[in-house]
Amino acid sequence: METFVFFVAAAICLAGALGVVLSKNPVHSALSLVGTLFGVAVLFVAQNANFLAAVQVIIYAGAIVVLFLFVIMLLGVDRAENLSVDPLVGQRAAAIVAGVAIFALPVAALATTGWDATGAIANLGSVSDSAVPDVEGIGRVLFTRYIFALEITSILLAIAVVGAVMLAKKSPKAADMIVDLPARPTSTDADAASADATSEEGTA
Amino acid sequence: MLLAAGVEPSWYLVLASALFAIGATGLLVRRNPLVMFMCVELMLNAVTLTFVTFSRMLDDIGGQAVVVFVLVVAAAEVVVGLGIIVAIMRRRPDATADDLALLKG
Fold first, then answer.
1. Which fold, A1-82?
2. Which of A56, A34, A46, A60 is nearest to A8 (CA)?
3. pLDDT in tens, B44-90
4. pLDDT 10s digits, A59-110
């Protein structure tokens, strides 16, 4: 049964990942990302990480992808991108070679260990013990061993919220922080699009 | 056949490396900052899958606890990153990663 679940979820994950990379339209990329995130959530359930699967669906597929789609719609960048031109000659081939190497290195490392995990165990609690649910185990670890890291995390989130508010604010100071980008002489429609955007800002 | 044999935990690790490699390749190839960001999310997801798999292989809950922190950091990163992208794209709606070269020497 787990074999069947694994192969179906793995196919969903890989198809979604390829969809993110190969889609010309950012909206399609975001929707493919949902597929991958859902597949990973299924794989979490298959490995008895039920709490993380729920969190994965709620935070990633629920919040983060919606945020992505929101930004795409807000900015109106849901146009198809021309993928046929390679801005840096040979960069794409080099990227694919690098991708194959990134895939091959961990697999080779795994093969040298005999396809098994090695190293010391932290002894923070058992996963296979059905008497202790995974929520209880994670909660116990987070509020004992990793309590300091958890507190730092709350500060990180507060800083992120303040930073996002500062970036979104339309004050003259914040506007100075982002210097105008030089216009590209090759694309004429790009200049027209930016001119439209500035005129819209002027009327607003 | 493959279906007859049971699932080895290492298969999850191979799948996670494949996801990570696809995300890294996309990050290198794509020029739209939003899509590059999604590729970073792909790579983060591959790493969380690895953590959960190691948690299962070593029978230790610590790996799952780390995934919680990865989720939080990913959420914070998306909030700030999308804020920066919105601030840039307001000025130039068609800006690509190649245009943001002001720090280049």
1. Four Helix Bundle (Hemerythrin (Met), subunit A) (1.20.120)
2. A46
3. 999 999 999 999 999 899 999 999 999 999 999 999 999 888 888 87
4. 998 899 999 999 988 887 767 777 677 777 788 899 999 999 999 999 999 9
Mean pLDDT of chain A, nearest integer:
83
Residue B96 lies in a domain: no
Mention every residue, 6+ apart, whose C-beta is less than 8 A from residue A41: A53, A54, A56, A57, A61
Residues 157-186 of A with CB under 8 A from B: 157, 159-161, 163-164, 167-168, 174, 178-182, 184
Sorted by where each begins, the domain ranges of chain A are: 1-82, 130-181
Maximum CA pair distance of chain B?
58
Domain extent, residue B85, equals: 9-91
| CB–CB contacts below 8 A, A to B | 278
Instruction: Quickly list H helices, chain A.
Output: 2-22, 26-46, 50-55, 65-75, 91-112, 134-142, 147-168, 172-177, 188-203
ipTM, two decimals:
0.89
Q: How confident is the model at residue A161 (pLDDT cuts 50, 70, 90)?
A: very high
Interface test with B, best of A3, A51, A112 (most B CBs within 10 A): A3
Q: Which of A117, A141, A161 sits opposite B62 (nearest CB)?
A: A141
Question: Per the CB < 8 Å rule, is A197 touching B90?
Answer: yes
pTM: 0.84
**B71/A10 touch (CB, cutoff 8 Å), yes or no:** no
Residues 62-101 of B with CB under 8 A from A: 62, 64-65, 67-69, 71-80, 82-95, 98-100
Q: Which two tokens stand for residue A61?
A: 């597929």
pLDDT of residue B84: 87
In angstroms, what separates the C-alpha of A90 from chain B's closest C-alpha? 11
State how far the alpha carbon of B42 is from the alpha carbons of A62, A182, B22, B92, in Å. Answer: 15, 31, 8, 26
**Could A40 and B54 be called an inter-chain contact, meaning their C-beta atoms sit closer than 8 Å?**
no
